[in-house]
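Help! Submission page says 'invalid entity' but I think these are all valid:
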Amino acid sequence: DSGVTQTPKHLITATGQRVTLRCSPRSGDLSVYWYQQSLDQGLQFLIQYYNGEERAKGNILERFSAQQFPDLHSELNLSSLELGDSALYFCASSAGGRNGYGYTFGSGTRLTVV
Amino acid sequence: GDSVTQMEGPVTLSEEAFLTINCTYTATGYPSLFWYVQYPGEGLQLLLKATKADDKGSNKGFEATYRKETTSFHLEKGSVQVSDSAVYFCALSKGGGTSYGKLTFGQGTILTVHP
């Protein structure tokens, strides 16, 4: 157990639907990062939150949004789902905002859009 | 923008063989460099890192040296084991500005080790 908890582990949904992925960071970590892993795009950074505030944004579609709550857990919302959104979504946490040191990754949520 | 290029896989080796996985990067400034490993069904685990030129990262028999002159960070292991079978990712990170902590990954290299 890495200390980063992602739920659910698997999700199957239809095109056009909306889903929410949840991430609980390792205890004490203030930063949460979301990544998308797909066969054609590899590992892509989506967005980072630090202590409740958006800190950095990557290749995140407008249909996707995220937030970090006061208890530091984060949710990634994916709407108007398309077949191409099928991927493994990882959450990672770290103690601070800089340099990627001390990243801890969750085991991911596998999203299948049918 | 920043990018990381890894050697094409998959790589298949026999146990106790020597392993090299090539990684080169393109980035401005002075990035930190990382190797991550992903075992089946699991998240990514940090294998080793180097934060400045000529630093050598090492862990579990794996080594990589930060070569700024060749913009490379090749992963090596002298004698691989079946348990090393996994996907290996090279990555870089730069602090500061708006990219706090963002990791830029290579495409990953699948390693399979046979007994």
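Support: the input was valid. A stray whitespace character was the problem, and the output above is from the cleaned input. The mean pLDDT of chain A is 91.
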